[in-house]
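To whoever picks this up:

The nightly regression suite flagged Transposase-like protein as changed. Nothing in the input moved, so I suspect the structure step. Input below, exactly as stored in the fixture:
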Amino acid sequence: MSGGVQQRSIFKRRRFPVEIILVCVRWYCKYGITYRDLAEMMQERGVEVDASTIFRVGSALRT
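Regenerated output under the current build:
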């Protein structure tokens, strides 16, 4: 299975655009920001996302 197909299956049925999810995961991995802080940062930018959503996607990407 190619990376593109695998990536699409990870993001299937997600409520948020892939770009937003990847920014959150990138910030979490690079800067060690907590999921709650990430959710708050997204909320300040007008994106309502729960910390558990970021956690689930981040976990799926790491496996």
